[in-house]
């Protein structure tokens, strides 16, 4: 949490509005999410704080941030969504993880699905991993997150795709460990 707040403080230029949002109550934070003209750092700060507080008004802005091109924003959104406890979170993360046009930004949605341990987590990770197993696929980090997630979930249905992942040089060690976790 401190890393996120420090990053946002820096982005804000340590401005008074940053301090105001940091001290704002949940209703003021929610109102700021729909205010016109606020910079991205302010919207992220409001959504992040609401998400960590379990306030579901943060759901939509956090999902938008989960799909952002900036990795620290995605990671902060995933952290807040994991705490939020909104039942829509797994479905949203699954949609982002399986969007072939946004594979470059799927790392945090994949990690979020692992953390959520939702019914759709393992099937989505298996499908995403299967799609990324070509030897020259540039998104091996996303594939590695899928392998690690499947190992953590220990779903026996993932055995076949994890066995295939063992032949991928960057995934072999993690895939072997994940298969061991299956028993």
UniProtKB/TrEMBL annotation:
It comes from the Bacteria. Keywords: Lyase. SMART domains: EZ_HEAT. InterPro entries: ARM-like (IPR011989), ARM-type_fold (IPR016024), PBS_lyase_HEAT (IPR004155). The keyword Lyase applies. The keyword Lyase applies. Transmembrane segments: none annotated. GO terms for molecular function: lyase activity. This is Adenylosuccinate lyase.
């Amino acid at each position: 949490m401190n890393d996120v707040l420090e990053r946002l403080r820096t982005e804000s230029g340590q401005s008074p509005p940053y301090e105001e949002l940091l001290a704002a109550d949940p209703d003021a934070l929610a109102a700021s999410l729909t205010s016109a003209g606020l910079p991205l750092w302010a919207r992220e700060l409001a959504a992040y704080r609401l998400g960590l507080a379990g306030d579901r008004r943060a759901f939509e802005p956090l999902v938008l941030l989960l799909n952002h091109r900036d990795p620290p924003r995605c990671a902060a959104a995933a952290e807040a969504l994991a705490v939020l406890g909104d039942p829509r979170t797994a479905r949203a993360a699954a949609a982002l993880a399986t969007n072939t046009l946004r594979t470059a930004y799927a790392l945090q949605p994949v990690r979020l699905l692992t953390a959520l341990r939702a019914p759709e987590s393992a099937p989505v990770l298996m499908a995403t991993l299967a799609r990324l197993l070509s030897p020259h696929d540039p998104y091996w980090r996303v594939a590695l997150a899928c392998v690690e997630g499947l190992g953590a979930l220990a779903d026996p249905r993932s055995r076949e795709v994890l066995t295939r992942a063992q032949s991928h040089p960057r995934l072999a060690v993690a895939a072997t460990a994940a298969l061991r976790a299956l028993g």
